[in-house]
Amino acid sequence: MEFRIAADELKKALYRAQGIVERKTTMPILANVLVTAHKTGVTVTAFDLEIGIVSEHPAEVVKPGAVTLSAKYVFDIVQNLPDAHVTLKKLANNYVEISSGSAHFKIVGTAPEEYPKLPREESAPLVQVTGNTLLEMIKKTQFAISTDETRYILNGVYFEPQQGGKVRMVATDGHRLSLIERELPGDFKLKTGVIIPRKGLLELKRLLDEAPDAECQLGFAENSALFKKTGLTMVMRLIDGQFPEYQRVIPKEGEKAVLVPKTRLLEGLKRIALLSADKSYAVRVGLSENQLLITANNPDLGEAKDALDIAYRGTAITIGFNARYLIDVLTVTDTDEVAFELGDEHSPGVLHAPGDRSFTAVVMPMRV
Predict the structure, then answer these.
(1) DSSP 8-state code for residue 101
(2) Can you spell out the DSSP letters for 245-308?
(3) For the chain, what is the mean pLDDT?
């Protein structure tokens, strides 16, 4: 195997692999990428047995062939090359020579036959999707995904096609829930919703971030998801299980609904959370006539409060929340104002755009 490729192209392929390759694993081969030179160009494959990416790149191929190389070390090398092009040449015993300008490296590789094969997903019906829309849906749900490995059903986002060409994505960790519904016309041929795992979703977000306007396709087979865009294919295993009945958690319209300036509320929460107790980020949100008051009390540090002027004439109430959960929602909210609906001190708070519940966040109360 021997080929010459633009250093930026190889760097892009290896950057895509960084979030997938497993560095701490009982299978050292999973820390590697499979580099394959064809007559028409080069493909770089990263696979951790759950998520796989095949990245295609133009190159001058002198001799076709394949080898696996450390994803991390070769990425570090390519980032620091002196020339705009790099040549890779496979030597005896799977060693690979990397040359660029005055720099020369000789790297230990592994036989390509040892690299695990990606699952074939020709059966997945692909639907043309808008990259920007899919990216927005991921950004507005990812923060609510559970990181508790014992609740593996919640370690991903529920992807559920709706009537009228819409798709709903839902994430919850038991303390909060985020739901977004957007138009993604096309028949995904799904009988029920599927759960896309957190790691796969974040890798998909990175790929969409590269070029949000690029045409892309998404499809689902029996237990896998398939994503494609020009020069790139990604496959990932779905989480097998039944997502909880999330509709039960979402209250109907709250008894006490107020419109709050988003930026002002976000800044206030960040300020007051500085004095919240330890890692709980506990703050009190109080409603009284024409005022929303955020307070925190920490026996070791002191207390803090911040008052916001709002239009409200209902009964006074104070509810405890995890400030970080509210901050996460407000950070991804696009509107200047946010509707904040409250029930009583035992009921969850609901946040959404004024008059639009297509993106809705639910935050459970906490005892403060």
Answers:
(1) T
(2) -GGGGS-SS-SEEEEEEHHHHHHHHHHHHTTSSTTT-EEEEEEETTEEEEEEEETTTEEEEEEE
(3) 94
| 277 has pLDDT over 80 | no
Is the distance from CB of 218 to CB of 129 less than 8 angstroms? Answer: yes
pLDDT in tens, 173-190: 999 999 999 999 999 999
Least Cα distance to 173 among 200, 149, 207 occurs for 149
pLDDT in tens, 55-92: 999 999 999 999 999 999 999 999 999 999 999 999 99
Whether the CB-CB separation of 120 and 132 falls below 8 Å is answered with no
The CA distance from 333 to 222, in Å, is: 34
**CA–CA dist 160, 338 (Å, integer):** 25
Distance CA 84, CA 8 (A): 7
Q: In what side-by-side order are the strands of the sheet with 156-161? A: 194-197, 156-161, 166-172, 176-183, 356-363, 349-353, 337-342, 256-261
> Cα–Cα distance between 225 and 195 in angstroms, integer?
10
- Return the exposure string of 63-90: e unless at least 16 CB atoms fall within 10 Å of the residue's CB, then b: eebbbbbbbbebbebbeebeeebbbbbb
Tokens of 248: 């039960």
How far from 113 is each of 34, 69, 81, 97, 269, CA to CA, in Å? 10, 13, 29, 20, 54
Q: What does the alpha-carbon distance between residue 202 and residue 145 come to, in Å, rounded to a whole number?
A: 11
**157: region left, alpha or beta (phi > 0 left; psi from -120 to 50 alpha):** beta
CA distance linking residue 218 with residue 40, whole number of Å: 26
**pLDDT exceeds 90 at position 31:** yes
For residue 298, give Cα distances in angstroms to 7, 53, 274, 275. 53, 47, 10, 6
Decide: 202 and 142 in contact? Cβ < 8 Å: yes
Tokens standing for residue 146? 């559970």
Answer positive or negative: Cα dihedral of 254, 260, 263, 268.
negative
Residue 176 burial (C-beta neighbours within 10 Å; 0-12, 13-18, 19+): buried
Distance CA 71, CA 15 (A): 9
Q: Which residue(s) pair with 92 in the sheet?
A: none
The percent of the chain in helix, strand and coil, each rounded to the nearest 5, is 25, 40, 35
Whether this model's pTM surpasses 0.70: yes
